[in-house]
Design goal:
There is one protein chain. With about 90 residues, this protein is mostly helical. It has helices at about 15-25, 30-40, 45-60, 65-80. α2 packs across α3.
């Protein structure tokens, strides 16, 4: 079983929770994430490192991550559907 933390069961509350949790990140990582998204440079190593820390804090605290979670993240990264963008905003 995969251990997850701080995930939202509500698609309506997910964006609000993400903003809250991102804002509470240590060491200026919030600013890195916001800047990279604003500049459209989410493929940068700086952004990827910040998001890795976010995932470790709020998605799964296991080390190493289970293969099923890694596969889900790979699929999510490839999802270019307009209803599920990089901001992970879901239409409800």
């Amino acid at each position: 079983m995969t251990e997850t933390s701080h995930t939202s069961a509500s698609a309506e509350l997910y964006p609000e929770g993400t903003v809250y949790r991102t804002g509470a990140m240590p060491d200026g990582l919030n600013e890195v994430i916001k800047r990279q998204r604003t500049e459209g440079t989410t493929s940068s190593e700086e952004y990827k490192a910040a998001m890795q820390r976010y995932y470790q804090m709020h998605i799964c605290s296991l080390d190493p991550w289970p293969e099923d979670l890694l596969e889900s993240l790979r699929v999510m990264a490839k999802n270019k559907h307009p209803d599920f963008t990089m901001s992970k905003t879901l239409r409800t």
